[in-house]
Amino acid sequence: MLYHARMDLPTLDPCAASAGTDVLLAARPWLRMDVQDGLLFDGVSLAAIAQGVGTPCWVTGADTLLRRVRTLQAAMGQVGVPVAIHFAMKSNDHLAVLALMRGAGVGMDVVSGGELARALHAGIDSAGIVFSGVGKTDAELDAALRAGIGQINVESAEELHRLSARATTLGLTAPVSLRVNPDVESGTHAKIATGHAETKFGVAHDDAAALYAQGTRLPGLRMDGLAVHIGSQIGVPAPFRDAYRRVAALVGDIRAAGHAVRRVDCGGGLGIAYGDDASLAGVPAAWAGAIATTLGGLDLALSIEPGRWLAAPAGLLLSRVIQTKAAPTPFVVLDAAMNDLARPALYDAFHAVVPVAPQRRAGRVMHLVGPVCETGDILAADRRMPEMRAGELVAILDTGAYGAVMSSTYNARPFAAQVMIGGGRWSVIRPRQPVEALWAGESVPGWLVRA
Catalytic site residues (predicted)? Predict the structure, then answer.
């Protein structure tokens, strides 16, 4: 069944594209427009940050991030079923963010050996780490086994046999959860949908019980349970419920065949409102309810892997206007670009943009673009904004997930600075990359150089 969730797609809705600053900020109480200091993030002046470190600059709000963690923990706790949280580290892997998550009692969901090493370096308890992904190398499996992580999500028969061989060679036991593809359409963007039959992820639902049984006979494996993840930016509970019902039935089938199922990893995918839609505010409770009603009575250790919902609203990208360019629809050229924030070019994703200076009357529809030499370097198209002038600041909202972590140095543009705010103060957590660092690790073969 295809569910029509609220999707992270380019919006043609004139209400969303032209929503005024007041409307956008009303949906984000951590942001406030001060008549003197301009836009404040958790009480900190964004103009002061831009003056101190320049632009473009990523800003992460520790207080907002922690509030969102506590909100999700409370939502899961209110349904009466314990649900462990593992942060989807691919959404934001900065050490400061991982430290905050560790302090809040949140584990990690990693998808590469590099993320595993980073999580361990950040002090995350190895028992609280889940390793997902369809292409784990033997070296990555060995690292996970040696680290003693709590769960390895196996996504194919081939991987199950490779993991058995690696665990046997090392004399260790692999804690396995079999990732099931429930063939459920989440109704989200095609590039972030993972739960239908034609994606690369997981084991086909109809094959899962037999493969699980096979795993119980392979050496070096402990078959602990099942995992499922149907996509990202899901805004309605129906696809979650449908997927979890299929998993619950599968738990029954596997147990009826005489095999233990101790845990179910419910994945992530919880969506946020990138525009001014306030109707997604209750989604965490609805997600918790979907988990409780479908899996809560099955004597399982349950967990989730949220990323976007926790981190995206807790971050923004500060940028400065380089110049404007007259056209039928004027262009506002910013110093941030698609190499900094890839999502608009990659997914046609919508991000609200607001001026940092105290609000003026809305001017006209314009395109906000970056200076990268690509036509697709459009950060915000057809936006009604106040008239913008060179040197003015804008904040591109909801970039705390899949923002800085997806940046590149395309066009030889150094990585932007990163700042974290909290308790009314701010600190640089990653300085702007010097341009010389772009070629610091490169060399020219001696044989290439000719007189």
Answer: 373
